[in-house]
């Protein structure tokens, strides 16, 4: 699976309350959550990000509470993937559970600038910056987690598995 989009750069320790403030946790409506995604950091961002774009961040992205709303809001904005130096473990797993690929690639996260075109080849563990630009490697995503991404998350994956067993 290859993803390609414009990079949106964020710093270290972007916590789940910055991704989706607690005052919006009274809904699970993806579109509503998306409208407020990253609002405390960049109030206009949710209206500027385009489907297929890629978030690039520093250390400890998604730290804070374990709310699933955070990756849901990001995916709801149309973001194709998140590249970061590192992720909070619960955010990392929640992202895959809703079908949002996240990639730990410290060198890529440091080198990519806001607005760069980024290409990610998930199965190969490759990030490319710009057309014909630098290439960075990351540990390829395990098969099971790629299956979750392809199916759109854990629930659709389970639904398919149940149908297959019948």
Structure characterization notes:
- This protein is about 35% helix and about 20% strand.
- It has about 170 residues and is of the alpha/beta class.
- The chain has a seven-stranded mixed beta sheet with strand order 4-3-2-1-5-6-7.
- Strand 5 (about 115-120) and strand 6 form a beta hairpin.
- Helix 7 (about 145-150) crosses helix 8 (about 155-165).
- The total of helices stands at 8
Largest sheet: 7 strands, mixed
What is the CATH architecture annotation? Answer: Alpha-Beta Barrel
Return the string of H and E elements: EHHHEHEHEHEEEHH
Record the strand order, biggest sheet.
4-3-2-1-5-6-7
Shape: globular
Can you identify the CATH superfamily?
Aconitase, domain 4
Percentage of β-strand residues: 15-25%
Rg calculated over all Cα atoms:
15 Å
Task: List the keywords.
alpha/beta, 166 residues, 7-stranded mixed beta sheet, Aconitase, domain 4, 8 helices
SSE order and pairing:
Elements: E1 2-9, H1 16-19, H2 30-35, H3 45-48, E2 54-57, H4 69-76, E3 81-84, H5 89-97, E4 102-104, H6 106-111, E5 117-121, E6 126-129, E7 135-137, H7 143-151, H8 154-165
Parallel strand pairs: 1-2, 2-3, 3-4
Antiparallel strand pairs: 1-5, 5-6, 6-7
Helix pairs in contact: 7-8
Provide a brief overview of the structure.
With 166 residues, this protein is α/β, with parallel strands linked by helices. It is built from 8 helices and 7 strands; from the N terminus they run E-H-H-H-E-H-E-H-E-H-E-E-E-H-H. The chain has a single domain, classed as Aconitase, domain 4, CATH 3.20.19.
């Amino acid at each position: 699976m290859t993803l390609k989009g414009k990079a949106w750069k964020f710093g270290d320790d972007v916590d789940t309350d910055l991704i989706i403030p607690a005052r919006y946790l009274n809904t699970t409506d993806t579109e509503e959550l998306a409208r407020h995604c990253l609002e405390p950091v960049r109030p206009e961002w949710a209206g500027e990000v385009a489907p297929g774009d890629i978030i690039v961040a520093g250390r400890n992205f998604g730290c804070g509470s374990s709310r699933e709303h955070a990756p849901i809001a990001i995916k709801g904005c149309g973001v194709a993937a998140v590249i970061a130096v590192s992720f909070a473990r619960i955010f990392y797993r929640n992202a895959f559970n809703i079908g949002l690929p996240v990639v730990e690639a410290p060198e890529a996260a440091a080198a990519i600038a806001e607005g760069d075109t980024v290409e990610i080849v998930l199965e190969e563990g490759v990030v490319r910056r710009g057309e014909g630009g630098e290439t960075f490697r990351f540990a390829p995503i395990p098969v099971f987690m790629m299956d979750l991404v392809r199916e759109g998350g854990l629930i659709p994956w389970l639904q398919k598995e149940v149908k297959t067993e019948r």
